[in-house]
């Protein structure tokens, strides 16, 4: 069983001069007048692309986002993407690992989780100007390497997280304790699905792990996303199947077993029921 290619931060684009846990590039310098095209792959780190202007396309977990001015594209570890950056792109590229965030307090870590719920942000001019100023400050810190410059970088990254959080949360959203609780429990549910879905596909197992009833977990999911917990489990299974169908040359039988389906015929029927394609047809039509 071949795994989807995973790019780690040390083996991707060579970093300018940091600890290896954080990388920032000015896109004009990175591209140097050339287009950049990356085929489908998976990352073991956070990937944050900030586009001031330019043309290209970013596909994250099979959703395509054509570039528009003042847009931001955020990937968390484990997601798959493919990317076309045309030579006229201006902006910044950030890459950082979970280890980079270890020193952050719990509030900052929760903020990162919240902003990772979205892959695409469209900002207003004023907000983008503030974000661009933060990127300029980080590049200056790396270039000058003054006392505690690593700490200064982390502070600026924290401010970036806050700017992104402001794009999707009004003041009442942020201060609403009930909504905050729902969001945190939902992220816990999603993380459990990602870790255990190959062995556990029934919602009652996840509810038990979260000390909730099945009714409570379904209610939580429906209030937040308009979908039942079982629908979220199904969506993740289909997403992971698509990742492997398009990101590897594995046989359908191997992917089926990897996802916990020993009955390959059942997996094929399950996939076709929800996508309209057999796994092989999906691979042939979308690769």
Provide an overview of this structure:
By secondary structure, this protein is of the alpha+beta class. The strands form 2 sheets. A 5-stranded mixed β-sheet has the order 1-3-8-5-6. A 5-stranded antiparallel β-sheet has the order 2-9-4-7-10. α3 packs antiparallel against α4.
Mean pLDDT: 88
Number of helical stretches of at least 4 residues: 12
Per the principal axes of the C-alpha atoms, what is the gross shape?
A: globular
**Tally of separate domains:** 2
Proportion of beta-strand residues:
15-25%
Name of the CATH homologous superfamily of the largest domain: Regulatory protein AraC
Rg value: 20 Å
Q: Which class do the helix and strand fractions yield?
A: alpha+beta
Question: Under the CATH scheme, which class of the largest domain?
Answer: Mainly Beta
Contiguous runs where pLDDT drops below 50 for at least 5 residues: 11-19
> Strands across the major sheet, in which order?
1-3-8-5-6
**Terminus-to-terminus distance:** 19 Å
Determine the oligomeric state from the structure.
single chain
The second-level CATH architecture of the largest domain is Sandwich
Largest sheet: 5 strands, mixed
* Total DSSP E strands: 10
Helix content: 40-55%
Give the topology string: H per helix, E per strand. EEHEEEEEEEHEHHHHHHHHHH
User: What do we call the CATH topology of the largest domain?
Assistant: Jelly Rolls
Keywords: DNA-binding, Transcription, Transcription regulation
Protein name: AraC family transcriptional regulator
GO molecular function, one term: sequence-specific DNA binding
Organism: Pararcticibacter amylolyticus
């Amino acid at each position: 069983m071949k795994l989807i290619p995973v790019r780690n931060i040390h083996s991707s684009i060579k970093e300018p001069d940091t600890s290896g846990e954080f990388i920032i590039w000015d896109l004009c310098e990175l591209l140097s007048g050339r287009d950049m095209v990356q085929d489908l792959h998976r990352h073991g780190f956070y990937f944050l692309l900030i586009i001031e202007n330019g043309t290209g396309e970013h596909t994250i977990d099979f959703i395509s986002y054509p570039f528009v001015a003042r847009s931001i594209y955020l990937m968390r570890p484990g997601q798959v993407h493919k990317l076309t950056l045309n030579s006229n792109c201006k902006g910044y590229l950030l890459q950082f690992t979970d280890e980079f965030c270890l020193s952050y307090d719990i509030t900052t870590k929760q903020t990162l989780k919240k902003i990772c719920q979205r892959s695409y942000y469209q900002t207003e001019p004023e907000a983008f100007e503030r974000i661009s100023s933060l990127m300029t400050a980080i590049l200056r810190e790396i270039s000058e390497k003054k006392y505690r410059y690593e700490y200064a970088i982390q502070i600026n990254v924290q401010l970036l997280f806050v700017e992104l959080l402001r794009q999707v949360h009004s003041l009442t959203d942020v201060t609403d304790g009930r909504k905050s609780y729902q969001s945190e429990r939902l992220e816990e549910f999603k993380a459990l699905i990602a870790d255990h879905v190959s062995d556990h596909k029934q919602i009652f197992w996840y509810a038990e792990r979260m000390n909730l009833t099945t009714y409570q977990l379904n209610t939580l999911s429906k209030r937040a996303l308009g979908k039942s917990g079982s629908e979220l489990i199904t969506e993740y299974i289909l997403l992971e199947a698509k990742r492997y169908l398009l990101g590897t040359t594995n046989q359908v039988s191997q992917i089926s077993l990897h996802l916990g389906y020993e009955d390959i015929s059942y997996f094929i029927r399950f996939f076709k029921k929800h996508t309209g394609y057999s796994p092989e047809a999906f691979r042939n039509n979308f690769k």
